[in-house]
Request: fold
Amino acid sequence: MKFLIVGGGTSGWFAAAYFAKNLPGIDITLIEDASLGPIGVGESTQPAISNFLYECGFLPKEWMEPTNATFKHGVELVGWNDKPYFVDNDTPQNYIATPNMFADSYFQGKPHSEFLDWYPAYYLAKRNISPKLAEMDATFNIGYEGYGAVHFDALGIVDTIRNTLKDKINYVDTRVTDIKAIDGNITKIIDINGNEYTADLYFDCTGFKGLLYDAIGAEFISYQDWLPNDSAVAINKPYTNPKEECFPYTRATAMNAGWRWTIPLFHRSGNGYVYSSKYLSKEEAEKELREALNDFESPANHLKMRCGRRRKMVDGNVVGIGLSTGFIEPLEATGVTFTTNAIRTFASAFWHTPEWRKHVNEAYNEMVDEILGFIFCHYHFSTKDNTQYWKDVKKKDLKSLPENVQKIISYVYPYPQRGVMFYSPYSLFSQVQWWAMINASDGYKHYPTIPLTEEEKKYLEYFVKCKDYQNKMAEECFPNHYEYLKGWYGR
Reply:
């Protein structure tokens, strides 16, 4: 069986690394134009990334330092409402009091600020506390948690994997100039030198271009009606005080026509403005970003993007990985997760399920539907409405969303559920993450609270106070985030 991966970047090299480690006997070829490089400007990830790389054969101590990686407790959203709120990395120990009772039950009906003052992930994040301790790999929560979510340099992670893997697969550094297809299937790939490449399955890792998908006429479903942002401008900024600025979380700050990210890497911060070109020119967006950063010298990188997905992840003999298959704006760091989940789902189904094409397509579409709903709700429930962009983006009703997306949202709204952690095996966001986002905007204020027995109230109070004590002890026990990494990286 021959796999041909077209395109490098994080999607291509992640796929090659995972297949090489977990699908023995497969003949793997990767073709890339190495001069192009990935478009990543500093990636914020979700917790599964560390386990994924481990399954590819990479230990954290092999990839974190060369990628200038930092830890991530979650995402702080600033300016979306009157007060900031926080969506954490989904660490169950932080909020599961009992299997059918979560910490949010204790805070229902109370100001969201009380929840944030207590919430362990936010407590650690805002105090720049490292989730790890010295060489022990000891963690804030009892037991081994792994390394969880991180920020890393996309160029660094690609170089790390490429340098390790390129001699273990068939690697070709060249430019694809032609793709031949018949009846919805690729027949061969031709490069700039006239060389021809054939395979049983072709993996489209060509980013937004989607060259292989387009060659077979694969349908693209746009999410522009619900998520209008189609552009971004990115600026990397050096630190002036890394001990304070290298904080262990991503920040998403509302702007006039979108939002801006702050992703702290070990050596600098990555910053960018995700916006809609309908409301802002690229020059206006860059000006607004520079003013927010007070940086008028660092070079800017302008990007175009499109939100949506292919109707099928597996179409004919083409399997899409990464941006070619689908993309939801990077508000909750789902870009890399799209890639890793797609690779894992394909590899598992291909190896074990005769109907693997059907299974992969259904699983991928379900994952994308959930992410569309989750990101849309950030805008829908936001209280910001001081520009035309924010007025317009909030006009779309929940009922305008695709039927399956509405079904997913119904698990958490109009009122939160008890004992429902994830709505499906492919879910990325738990009930508590949904609650943290909706409750921060008073989304539940018109609906009755879930009644609790006296015994439940007593146990929840015990749970909350135990975590509160653990928070305070962490300040004494765990080091500053930057100082911890500085000692580890030896810089």
In short: The CA atoms of residues 260 and 273 lie 4 Å apart. DSSP finds 17 helices and 26 strands in the chain. The first strand starts at residue 2 and ends at 6. The chain has a mean pLDDT of 92.
